[in-house]
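During the second year of the project, the team shifted from modelling isolated chains to modelling whole assemblies. The rationale, set out in the original proposal, was that interfaces cannot be judged from single-chain predictions alone. As a representative example for this report, we include one of the complexes processed in the last quarter. Its constituent sequences, exactly as entered into the pipeline, are reproduced here:
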Amino acid sequence: MSGRGRGGRGRGGSAKSFNKEQLTALGVGAKELLPGPVTQPPPLYPLLNRKPVPLNQSLEMDYLLILRQDFIDHIQLSGSYIKLPQNKMKPEQEIDKLVAQLPVAKEKYDWTLFPSELRPKMYAKRNKQKTAKEVNIEQRLTVLEKLEEKSDDADVAVNNNEADEEVEDVEEIDEDEEMDDGTDYANNYFDNGEAYEDEDDNLEDGPIY
Amino acid sequence: MSAQLGKVLALIISDRFGPVVEKVGMYLFQYGTSPLLYIVKNTGLPLGKVKESLCVLIKYRLVFFVPNKNENIANYTFIADNVLLMLRYPKYIHLIKRKFGDESEMIVEEILQKGYWTASDVIQKVFQRLSKNVDNAVSFGQLKDKFVSLVTAKYLVRIPYSEEDRPVPNLILQEGELHSISEIDIQQLVISAKTGQPFCFPDQGVYWAVNFDRFHQDMRDKIIVAAFTRKFDENAGELVRLLLQQMYIRTQPWADVSNPVPIIEIKDIIKKQTGFPQLNVFFDQYVNVIEQDSCNLIRKSGEASGGSFQIFLKEAFTQFAWEVIEQCVLEKLDSKAARIFRLVKLKQYIEPDQIQQLAMIPAKEAKRLSYQLFEENFLQIQELRKAPVGNGPSKSFMLFHINLPQVAQMILELCYKTLFNIMTRRSHEKVMNKRIIDKKQRVDTISMGMRAQGASEDQLADIEEMITPPEREILEKIDRTMKKLTLVELEIDDTIFLLQMYLIYE
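Output from the structure prediction step:
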């Protein structure tokens, strides 16, 4: 570094950062002792040189405090406070258990104002299925046409009708399954305990296979 | 945008929306505009949660989106300023309460809590809340009037909507729709309140949100009026208030300099008022005093019709920023340092030797203080080099000066740091005393439940005794600390507001 040479110090000269001239220019006299080398890190919480001015409390401020707390409480209780899915560990504190029992509120949004990619899966799927269904209809129509061509006898036609109905049934079931698969946003798993007694009744009817 | 600000924003969001939203928000803050899948990949959160978080952030207008090149996906951008405004929400609500009364306060409160809402729903909700206390019943018609007056006064604005059905909606608003109130059917509201069934109101899809700018305008005026009231007296404050009020008739609210306001107009208003007889008598003197004040708020622009004045808002706020910074120096480094600071301000550029002579402080101390001011970034150094004459030593002058915008920015950073420290401290207190706070909550819940069931006083007292006196003491102490910390938060926000105003005008 060229700056070092210009300062008038030789290489490896004095260990101090300033020479005498510079020190006098900065206002440090010749006789004064320079502070010794710092060997300790500064304290984590240094002492304050001055006390801060006391806060002025007023009714207005108290009201603002209440408003602030109300607002935060409201948002925390609303669906906007998003928690990660609970891990399997049981909550240790009593209060945590109580909080966990609270029904999880889901926010309702006007989806016209949001990008469609943000919608929960259920909405996206429904749109897809509409197109899928149309294809199915066409396929089925061709199937039906073939069947009609083949069938000459009335008896066979009856059979075919039955078969058609079966096909329809199967398709409907498929649709239902597709709808439900994926998310459970719409389902309410909350059990208020009312159905508890009902289960016994079912058992009396006989075992369910 | 600094790292310090980012930390504060993270705390603000996690206080309100929880850690998941905080993570998403902070990703957007650090990395800027990003599409959905980037966020999912880099935050490591499940897709569903990221979607929910983005919905929440968009809803409270903390994030906005624009379509990507591929129009099926959107790019999300974080609005850091709006997050900081969440600290100011109580002040907005309070401002409306003072200006328009309790019903309007509730309307604004509900809208702030929801982000945005339709007029009918807000009115219905406020009606439900008000009908709980029987003594002051309000009709739907009154509430609607309140709502309309909030919209016409521009405290509420309509939020943009999309007309076409696209994967990423293009949100726009026609000109004039911002403040035009749509139809609110009172009859339907009444029917729905009676039957308790949700209704499909005609203004569905017309959402209203709070217009922060309008609130800031009021808060700015309040600062100016308060400054003059404190410096002179009530009468001067009133005069300035009227000046600002008349200014809005002719000028855009955020102009640096207003168009001339004829003073005779204000004189007429004061004559009609009865509240300030002093102001009426000594009107000319008050105008003179305010004109000659160091704030430079008003300046005469013409003599016609008794004189007209221009209002210099920018200069006033520059002056306020100076005052705030001087006060900071005073509190941090004491009055001698403040004297040096003011001296540098007065001289603009000054040599260290001159400071010693003019400030009348012993040479050594003057040097120490000016170095300290330099170290804390209140002063800047400008070096002037003189070309060396022949072979002689090159001479250079060191000049101290103050760069006000830079110092204001520095103080702003200091405010963010303070906010961060306060919030950290508060959550620390909460964590340290979680057990006892939980216990208090539990006892409160039980005693509330008992009271609802009609338990006797003895039983209630028994429950109350579950908290021992030492615990009660600790609880009180925690309460006091929390209150103090939150108060600081509100006060710091005032300073932030003032400095931001200055930087906006700059």
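The first strand of chain B starts at residue 34 and ends at 35. The first helix of chain B runs from residue 3 to 17.
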